[in-house]
């Protein structure tokens, strides 16, 4: 079998290699998963919980090893990588509890005027679930799919991001030390080469995907009657109103926009600020951006080399386009290979690509608004609808804005973010389909089975 060599985005160091799997390997893995589904799904949930408790323990024990590998492979600050692993361990523990608590429902015919019928609806697993994760959270966004699938008795085919496949292979190796044989399989290889085959495989029942809108749409078009959960791109806006606590707003905006170099679907990707407080807010933002640690993720830098040169070229292209159309660079516009320094652009207008496009990099456009209504209008003028932030001391106004925004979640006086992992997490428009979050993921990857009694 041929293999794919993985190099570090930090310094091109060789990290390892993974098999470029073929259709035959995929068929064999899915066959084995299918064969093991019956026995695994028939275990008591408490038994599956015991296995997953061992998974949680083994990952905790290897958290530092996984964090170092992740740091090198995807260029995420070491502390953030470690936090990601430990956050995932916590998430596993909570998922086990939610899985155990999952109960059926009872409907009485009496409420509908049919006295002699009751319906018992129990939850059943779906079968082989395909979990596809992106590069930016290779541990967390993989486990937040795999674990809710397993606790309810599904079996899992896991497709990791190619840049991230070394750490994910180690993750699965550790998990399979303690899980029953043949309930979790990893398929490595380029998504562009093997993706279509796995997406359309007749024995896949459900696809749980996080990644770009482009790939998500392709999968949706191929899925036919398979169940789908999609977490896709975003263009999250921070709307700052006249009465906002500007110190707090600037601090949340800078953290929201630049952590992991802006390579987060929930990163703040535009600031919409009321003209009267713009100058003060921008100055506070610049003070903080000037202090961001840039460079080596092993030294815990926040802004680090981007995942590859292509991504850096894309981000630079957005900066260049905005400059050529009159935007002003307030800080940044400095690049060393795939390391893009944090950049803030002022005077961003609708004719500039960055007004609408998702950079997935450390660049923050500032857009002036005359009032709250214009803020809502611009925020909604996007193909995306993941999250938004609103900064104001007036809770009534915050509620009003939150109701008007076409997004999955609105954060009041806080940065956009996914966690805590038990919250429902969803996008509208081109940002997604279905709802993630521990309880919601469990529900999505099970179906109701009705048993109706005539009494
Ligand atoms: N809303 C959310 O929760 C999140 C959204 N994102 C979005 O993801 C993007 C960045 O992540 P990135 O990893 O580059 O996203 P991609 O969409 O490029 O890749 C995501 C995953 O899909 C795989 N893939 C690629 N092509 C196919 C295919 N035809 N069929 C099946 N799988 C395929 C990739 O594998 P391979 O690596 O081999 O190409 C990878 O595992 C951004 O747009 C970002 O907004 C990211 C994180 C969270
Ligand atoms: O992939 C992403 O960007 C995540 O889903 C966002 O997670 P975070 O808000 O916890 O960074």
Q: What is this structure, in a nutshell?
A:
The protein is built from 14 helices and 22 strands. With 455 residues, the protein is of the alpha/beta class.
Describe this structure in words.
The chain has 455 residues and is an alpha/beta fold. It folds into two domains: 3-232 and 432-454, Aldehyde Dehydrogenase, Chain A, domain 1 (3-Layer(aba) Sandwich); 237-412, 3-Layer(aba) Sandwich (Aldehyde Dehydrogenase, Chain A, domain 2). 41% of the residues lie in helices and 23% in strands. It has 14 helices and 22 strands. The chain has helices at 23-42, 45-61, 63-74, 78-101, 140-151, 165-178, 191-199, 213-222, 246-258, 275-289, 309-324, 372-380, 395-404, 438-444; strands at 3-7, 14-19, 105-108, 117-125, 128-132, 155-159, 184-186, 204-210, 227-231, 236-240, 268-274, 328-331, 335-336, 339-340, 343-346, 363-369, 384-385, 387-391, 409-412, 428-429, 432-433, 446-454. Strand 6 (155-159), helix 6 and strand 7 (184-186) form a beta-alpha-beta unit. The chain binds NADPH dihydro-nicotinamide-adenine-dinucleotide phosphate and 3-phosphoglyceric acid. NADPH dihydro-nicotinamide-adenine-dinucleotide phosphate is lined by residues 132-136, 159, 161-162, 190-192, 195-196, 199, 210-212, 215, 218-219, 231-234, 265, 358, 360, 386, 427, 432. Residues 132-136, 159, 161-162, 190-192, 195-196, 199, 210-212, 215, 218-219, 231-234, 265, 358, 360, 386, 427, 432 line the site of NADPH dihydro-nicotinamide-adenine-dinucleotide phosphate.
């Amino acid at each position: 079998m041929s293999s794919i060599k993985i190099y570090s985005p930090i310094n091109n160091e060789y990290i390892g290699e993974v098999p470029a799997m073929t259709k035959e390997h995929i068929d064999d893995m899915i066959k084995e998963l299918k064969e093991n589904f019956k026995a695994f799904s028939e275990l008591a949930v408490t038994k599956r919980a015991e296995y997953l408790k061992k998974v949680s323990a083994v990952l905790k024990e290897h958290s530092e090893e996984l964090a170092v590998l992740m740091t090198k492979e995807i260029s995420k600050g070491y502390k953030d990588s470690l936090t990601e692993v430990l956050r995932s361990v916590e998430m596993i523990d909570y998922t086990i509890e939610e899985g155990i608590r999952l109960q059926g429902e009872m409907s009485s015919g009496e409420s509908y005027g049919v006295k002699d019928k009751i319906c018992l609806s129990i939850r059943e697993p779906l079968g082989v679930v395909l979990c596809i994760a992106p590069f930016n959270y290779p541990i967390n966004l993989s486990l937040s799919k795999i674990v809710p699938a397993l606790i309810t008795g599904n079996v899992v085919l896991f497709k990791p991001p190619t840049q991230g496949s070394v750490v994910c292979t180690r993750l699965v190796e550790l998990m399979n030390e303690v899980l029953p044989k043949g309930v979790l399989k990893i398929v490595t290889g380029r998504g562009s080469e093997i993706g279509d085959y796995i997406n359309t495989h007749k024995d896949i029942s459900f696809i749980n995907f996080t990644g770009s809108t482009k790939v998500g749409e392709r999968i949706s078009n191929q899925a036919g009657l398979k169940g789908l959960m999609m977490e896709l791109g975003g263009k999250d806006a921070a709307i700052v109103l006249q009465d906002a606590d500007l110190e707090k707003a600037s601090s949340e905006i800078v953290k929201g926009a630049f952590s992991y170099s802006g390579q987060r679907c929930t990163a703040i990707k535009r600031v919409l600020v009321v003209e009267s407080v713009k100058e003060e807010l921008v100055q506070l933002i610049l003070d903080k951006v000037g202090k961001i640690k840039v460079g080596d993720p092993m030294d815990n830098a926040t802004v680090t080399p981007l995942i590859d040169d292509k991504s850096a070229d894309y981000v630079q292209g957005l900066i260049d386009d905005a400059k050529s159309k009159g935007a002003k660079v307030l800080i940044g516009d400095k690049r060393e290979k795939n390391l893009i320094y944090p950049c803030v652009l002022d005077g961003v207008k609708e004719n500039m690509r960055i007004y609408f496009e998702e950079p997935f990099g450390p660049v923050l456009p500032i857009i002036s608004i005359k009032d709250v209504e214009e803020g809502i209008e611009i925020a909604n003028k996007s193909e995306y609808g993941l999250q938004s932030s609103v900064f104001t001391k007036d809770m009534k106004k915050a509620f009003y804005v939150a109701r008007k925004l076409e997004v999955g979640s609105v954060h009041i006086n806080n940065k956009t973010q996914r966690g805590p992992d038990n919250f429902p997490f969803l996008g509208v428009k081109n940002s997604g389909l279905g709802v993630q979050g521990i309880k919601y993921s469990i529900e999505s990857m099970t179906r109701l089975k009705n048993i109706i009694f005539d009494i």
